[in-house]
Design brief:
The protein has about 210 residues and is α/β, with parallel strands linked by helices. The longest helix has 16 residues, at about 5-20. Strands 5-4-3-6-7-8-9 form a 7-stranded mixed sheet. It has a two-stranded antiparallel ribbon with strand order 1-2. It has helices at about 5-20, 25-35, 65-75, 95-100, 110-125, 160-165, and strands at about 55, 60-65, 85, 105-110, 130-135, 145-150, 165-175, 180-190, 195-205. The two termini are about 30 Å apart. It has a domain at about 60-205: Rossmann fold, CATH 3.40.50.150. Bound molecules: S-adenosyl-L-homocysteine. S-adenosyl-L-homocysteine (SAH) binds near residues 62, 90 and 154. S-adenosyl-L-homocysteine (SAH) binds near residues 87, 108 and 114.
């Protein structure tokens, strides 16, 4: 588990690429500049870790493209101390970005293998999520609600109601919505029953699945 000068240099180049693609939030760029993404990937893909691409992880899943991670995180507007719920822990990379921004992170993963692997791995690197949960993200995590923000990192065929309900007033849900291609969508909770909706560009994610294994 080494992080060398070479890796650090490659990370700074990646940060430059993300800036060129329009990412502006310095705190998000700094987080990506400090997190050793190569350690979140299987050793066969180490050389690809700092390209702006998604890559396979265990259980047929992917670690999201750095641009996608940056774009979603920028939309969340995370402040230190915010309670953030993530759906789709996967490799734990997005969770590490949220921890680096000072969020209190709750993250749900439905694949047992990934859940176990990432639960061990994240604390080893010093990223301490409040809770990593094995379960179904469609239901959210009502016992810890409300959340300042909720981020879904898999393609959702529709917007799960519980995720909107578990937002604090003023809270933000960032969710890619669609089947083959997803539209990045931001919901801001303005009141008990009032939500503002903003749509951004198209992205491609692995699907948010409904039934457990
Ligand atoms: N945030 C991850 C991206 C992982 S890809 C990272 O940074 O690496 C999306 C993840 O969502 C996969 O691990 C997949 O198993 C998980 N997923 C799919 N459907 C889910 C559901 N209903 N509940 C929780 N996780 C789900």
């Amino acid at each position: 588990m080494k992080d060398t000068y070479k890796h650090q240099g490659m990370r700074q180049q990646l940060v430059g690429v993300l800036k060129d693609k329009g990412i502006k939030d310095e705190r998000v760029l700094n987080a990506i500049g400090t997190i050793p993404r190569h350690l979140f990937m299987d050793s066969g893909f180490l050389d690809h870790a700092y390209q702006d691409k998604a890559f396979p992880i265990a259980a047929d899943q992917t670690i999201s493209q750095p641009y996608t991670v940056a774009f979603q995180t920028e939309l969340l507007n995370v402040e230190p101390g915010d309670k953030v719920l993530e759906i789709g822990t996967g490799s734990g990379y997005q969770a590490a970005v949220l921890c680096t921004l000072g969020a209190k992170v709750y993250s749900i993963e439905r694949q047992k293998e990934l859940f176990k692997k990432t639960s061990k791995f994240l604390p080893k690197l010093g990223y301490r999520a409040k809770k990593l949960i094995f379960g179904d993200g469609y239901k959210g995590l009502p016992e810890e609600a409300p959340y300042k923000s909720v981020i879904v990192t898999a393609g959702a065929p529709f917007v799960p109601k519980p995720l909107l309900q578990q937002l604090a007033i003023g809270g933000r849900l960032v969710i890619p919505v669609g089947d083959d291609v997803q539209v990045m969508t931001l919901f801001i909770r303005k009141g008990e029953k009032e939500f503002e909706k903003h749509e951004f560009g198209e992205f491609r994610f692995v699907p948010l699945l409904e039934d457990k294994n």
